[in-house]
Amino acid sequence: MTLNIRTESTTPERITLFVEGRLDASNYGPFDSEVQTKLAPLPEGGTVVLDLKDLEYISSAGLRSFAKIRKQMRARNGHTLLLNPQPQVRKVFDIVKAVPVNEIFVTVRELDDYLDQIQRKMMQEDR
Amino acid sequence: MGWRSISIASRLALWALLGSMLVLAISGTILFIHTRDTVLAHTHREAGALARGAASRIEARLDRVVVSTQQLAALIDPSSPDADKLLRQALKANHDLSGLAVAFRPGDGTIAPAPFVSRDSEGRMHGRDLRDDPTHYWQQNWFLGGLTCRKGCWQRPFFSKSRQRWLINFSVAIVRKDKPIGLVNADVSLDWLRDILGTLRKPDGAQAFVMGGDGVYLAHDRHDLTGHPGSPALLKALAARNGAPALLSARHAADLDEASWLYGAPIKGSYWSLGLLVPERRIYAPLRHLFIIDLSIGTLALLCIALMLLLVTRRMLAPLGVLAARAEHIARGETAFELPDIRGRDEVGRLTQSFDTMRQELAAHIEQLTEAVRAQQRLSSELEIAQQIQTSLLPSEHYIEARTTRFELHASLRPARAVGGDLYSYFMLDRHHFCVMVGDVSDKGIPAALFMARTITLAKALAAHTLSPQRMLKRLNQELCVGNESCMFVTLLCGVLDLRRGRFTMASAGHDPIMLCNEDGPRLIDAETGPAIGLDEDAAYPSHTVQLHAGDTLLMYTDGITEATDADMRMYGIERALRVLGQSPRPEKPSEYTHRLLSDLDRFVGSADQADDITILALSWHHTEDDGDTDVLELDLPGRIEDVFAALERCEQTMEASGIPGGVREDVRLVLEELMVNMVEHGHTGRTDGNIRLRLECDDDDVRVSLRDNGHPFNPLETKPPSTDTDGATDPEQVGGFGIHLVRAMASELTYSHDDQGNHLQLRFVNHSRMEPDS
């Protein structure tokens, strides 16, 4: 099973990446470059959501890719949120702690609530 | 209805009747004979006297005739002028005379007058002279015969036609100068004789007669016989008698009508005899009549007595009949019925009372018995069901792994009672592990069976979750200790055979040692055991491992074998078992082990009772060879990243084929990827002969991996875990440490070594879905 990426963009500030298949040392290179092109249009302070519902397997190489995404987004004051990791993948996150626990969500609804919260916070700051 | 079914009363009456009839008949007969003799003697006396009396009367009458005639003979001469007159006087004086005649022999041409005077029936006298008769009297027989009778003699009787009567002559010769010159002849009518006979007071039916000296009847009550000769038998009896009566039969004496007694009496002065014939029948007739009457009355009386006896006995014995019928009721098990009233304290009354008591006690007894039998039946049917249930708890006696025939098992369990406390069980834990257990519950019978059922069910349930007999026994012990107030316990031996390697891991809870039979012969395996299960909840059970070789057989048994006793109470003992099993030829199949041991045991025990349950289980392990679908993967790959991923795919396939669950597979794959990618990317930098050798072994309980590479020495155990930055995420620059960290976190065991061939990593991943954590 190879890796497949689909993107969905509901708002310009937010992009959702559906990562499907396996992400390991054999394919993290192409993944990194594809993600770069997809993240490039995001404005300052944008949000990237990695939907891991169909990600079956991840190794440390994959983790490194996610870490890179996160680092890049932080540099642009953006957020990286993980949605719906499968148990095997979740286990790896838990062991390595490459992503803070509060940035991992189990359902879309949970994620939306969190994003609303951020938006309200930002609006308050703007005012 | 046979004789035996006739009632006692009837039999009693009948026997009494028969008995008294017999007595009556015998005594009657004796009396009859005696009375008959008496009557006969009496008749003899009476008839004899009568005959003699009659004879005397006739004698007297005859005497007068004789005397008259003799006087006349003395008086009359041929010259007597008054001869006629004399005759008439004499005739007148004696009425017995019917006629008188005097006649002389003619002499010298003259014939003296021969007067004859006779009397007719009216009593008139007639006279004539015999010389006038046409016949010459001197030529007549009567005259010639009479001349010879000097004293007088009686002539033959004759029927006088002129006078129409029977007459007899008495002739006396007239003797002068000693010479008979004539005679006096008296005609005597026999009518008076008949009259005399007729006036005799004879017994009924008796006949009297007068017999002349020449054997001719002079008179007879049967008139037709007068003048006829008597039968020789009668004459002989008359002549032979000595005054004693004689019995004549009509067959021998023609002049008799029937058998009669003859009483004779001689009439003196003549040769006559008087006879009296009394028919025998007439003598006994009254007697017979009397006896018939007596007998009838007696019989009637006896019948009455018998009838009374019958009625009385029946009445007395009637309760017996009722009791007999009631006894049949009792025989059918019915005890509620009416008993006859107790009328008295006689035997029947006492019997009735005893019967009543017996009935009541029987009823109570039957009720108890019925209850007991019902309980017994219930118990036995329950026991039967219990036996079926218990049997169903045991697996079949023979088991051979159908797919690979890597081992074979044969077990035998003989309960001493319907249900028992011995148990054995076996089952495959997974494809490569076979669990077997043999146990013995303390005690026997139902309590033991219940405990056995609990043990075997629990043990099976627990064994399914562990591969370790040690842990299984510990858990089982904890479970069985709970609420074991009766302190029942079970000794149990549990073992798990690894079918691939022949490793038998076992733990024993106070059970008899296991026996190993290999080419060196049988021997006991001395393994440390824990306490029996159910007593101490903190007990621990040490594990012991036996390495089997192909063809080895393990024997498990209960003390029912070693402690079996023969009739002399000697124990079988384990030494004998070892000796028997060690005899050549060595058994080949498990069933041969069990059969040999059990048949020897049977010979030893003989007729003695089996005291304890007997169980024996033999397990033979056949071979070590892998069974084709190998679970081992060995790869030798060059140090390139695409080869690494190809190898990872192979590993994945191998694990999947071995049934390793997805979670473990992912872990293994992740770890191997991290390690091998690390080797390729860091270990082999600057070289082209990079090489990785991988060996992966899949078991049901774990996955073992051996990794060798010829790269730079690198001990993953010595790298530090990655640090986390302030917001809780790992710095991506340190991400190289991620992999090693994952490896350490995910592998259950990890060892590293380095030698001249390079790095050697050994990893083990425990299959947690099969193994439970140690408690």
UniProtKB/TrEMBL annotation, chain A:
GO terms for molecular function: anti-sigma factor antagonist activity; hydrolase activity. InterPro entries: Anti-sigma_ant (IPR003658), STAS_dom (IPR002645), STAS_dom_sf (IPR036513). The keyword Thylakoid does not apply. Residues 17-115 form the STAS domain. SUPFAM superfamilies: SpoIIaa-like. Keywords: Hydrolase. Transmembrane segments: none annotated. Belongs to the anti-sigma-factor antagonist family. This is Anti-sigma factor antagonist. It comes from Oleiagrimonas soli.
From TrEMBL, chain B:
The keyword NADP does not apply. It comes from the Bacteria. Gene3D superfamilies: 6.10.340.10, Histidine kinase-like ATPase, C-terminal domain (3.30.565.10), PAS domain (3.30.450.20), PPM-type phosphatase domain (3.60.40.10). Its main location: membrane. CDD domains: HAMP (cd06225), HATPase_RsbW-like (cd16936), PDC1_MCP_like (cd12913), PDC2_HK_sensor (cd18774). GO terms for biological process: signal transduction. One of its GO terms (cellular component) is plasma membrane. It is found in: Cell membrane. Residues 359-386 form a coiled coil. GO terms for molecular function: kinase activity; phosphatase activity. Its EC number is 3.1.3.3. The chain crosses the membrane at residues 12-33, 290-312. PANTHER family: STAGE II SPORULATION PROTEIN E, STAGE II SPORULATION PROTEIN E-RELATED. This is Anti-sigma factor antagonist.
